Amino acid sequence: MKRIEITTEYIALGQFLKLADCISTGGQAKQFLQETVIRINGAVDNRRGRKLYSGDTVEVEGCGRFEVVSTCS
Are 68 and 13 in contact (CB under 8 A)? Predict the structure, then answer.
């Protein structure tokens, strides 16, 4: 499982996909979410604005498994 570090309290799923290199631009997020199965903490979710917090796990079909880690104090 790859760790994705964020410097804020949370990150939106659309932004996370770009940070995790699953998509190359934020504009691709909407279509990517319609075509790809994404599980957040085991539950399927495709909301671009879904907030991800430190400790959340994200599994992106065809891209891998990730853990969100916040470096924010």
Answer: no
pTM of the full predicted structure?
0.91
Give the residue from 70, 20, 29 showing the smallest Cα distance to 49: 29
Q: β-strand 38-40 against 43-44: which pairing, if any?
A: antiparallel
CB 48 within 8 A of CB 10: no
In angstroms, rounded to a whole number, what is the distance separating the alpha carbons of residues 34 and 7? Answer: 28
pLDDT tens track for 19-62: 999 999 888 888 999 999 999 999 999 999 999 999 999 999 99
Domains along the chain with CATH numbers? 2-70 (3.10.290.10)
- List 67's β-bridge partners, or say none: 3, 57
